[in-house]
Amino acid sequence: MLGYISSFMKKEKGQALVELAFVLPVLLLLVFGVIEFGSIYHTQLALDHASREAARIGAVRVASGDFDFDAEVTGLIQDRASYLDDDHLHVSVSPESTNERVTGADLEVLVEYEKSLMTPIMSRVLSNSDNPGHIQLNARTVMRIE
Fold it and tell me: Where are the domains of the chain?
């Protein structure tokens, strides 16, 4: 009887499957984390770029007053980050009053975006309780009006 038990314990059938069962969840979490991080980082870079361009255009052209600045800034941001969903994109420009937008004053462009997460695993880890499956990203640029 003892010989039968020892021969049973020496068999290694299914060892790889057990090891895979231990490693696979960690490996999937790591892979999906890298994919989600890349997507979030790409969106953040697009928001930074769009807010910087909008602030630069505003800092150069706002004092002339020959165009609808808020509409132009929003249009420029939507154009530069065209792959983003416009329904989740919010643009605010400060100062709000056109009388305060004079040469030498600071112009602030704030772009906020609610990004939906791609992977269900990361949605549970990264999202906030207010809006599950989404993460809030923002970019803020301040430039002096010329």
Answer: 16-144
